[in-house]
Amino acid sequence: MTNVTVTGNQDNLARCHYSSLAPGASYNCRYGTHTISNADVTAGSYVPQLAVTGQSVAGNATSGTTGESVDLSASH
Question: Could you tell me if 56 and 37 are in contact, meaning their C-beta atoms sit under 8 angstroms apart?
Answer without folding.
Answer: no
